[in-house]
Amino acid sequence: ITFGDLFEFAVPLIQSEVVVVVDRDLLDSLTLRYTPTPIQSSRFDLYRFRISDDKNTTKEKTIEDTDTKVTFDALTPGKLYNVTVWTVSDNVESRPISRQDRLYPQAINAIHAIDVNDTTITLTWDLPQGEYDAFEVQYINSEGSYVQNITSQNVITISDLKPHRNYTFTLVVRSGSESSYLRRSNPLSTSFTTSESYPGRVEKFHPTDIQPSEISFEWFLPTREFNGIIKKFTITYGLE
């Protein structure tokens, strides 16, 4: 074996920077961007790219190709993918460069309220396509505090609400975890109103004018205690 033979079959080098790009609005595609490996540092013919889909789809680009990105389509939303890049010389591959990333999950199309009363609302929604791990339901409670609930089911009951209040619920699909490429879908928000209930107790009920044959009263009911549409106030009285 001559020195020329050894050079011809030498394993090529790869000195490219590889970045994975995923888009929240392109749920079924993943793009690799890479910097060219300097041709002065290694002899090779092409770049080879492979993704861990059902077919281990492989794409190749020649060193003359100036478009330094590769896109894989028809993927599964929310799924974690491994991608591998090599330089190749006479079908001899370099050491691999591996990257991993997760596609964004598909968002929910609609939120439905299947049970509403004065203090609770039960929400449900259709399951998204692709892979997902949980659903995140967010809303602002009656005290103005942000509340976040996470469930693995496509139904949730929100309790401790106030009667006759309008609540806006925002639902986000989660795929992955904090330690494994967590991705959140685009949010979807819908508003629902709780049922009416008994009004609260009036405040500052006292007479303002007392005459021999009539008494005038004044009272105050805070708006937060309306719990519905107030149509009238009733005063009952009797002789002692």
From TrEMBL:
InterPro entries: ECM_Regulatory_Proteins (IPR050991), FN3_dom (IPR003961), FN3_sf (IPR036116), Ig-like_fold (IPR013783). This is Fibronectin type-III domain-containing protein. Residues 15-106, 107-197 form the Fibronectin type-III domain. PANTHER family: FIBRONECTIN TYPE-III DOMAIN-CONTAINING PROTEIN, TENASCIN. Coiled coil: none annotated. The lineage of its organism: Eukaryota, Metazoa, Ecdysozoa, Arthropoda, Hexapoda. Pfam families: fn3. Keywords: Repeat. The keyword Repeat applies. It comes from Bracon brevicornis.
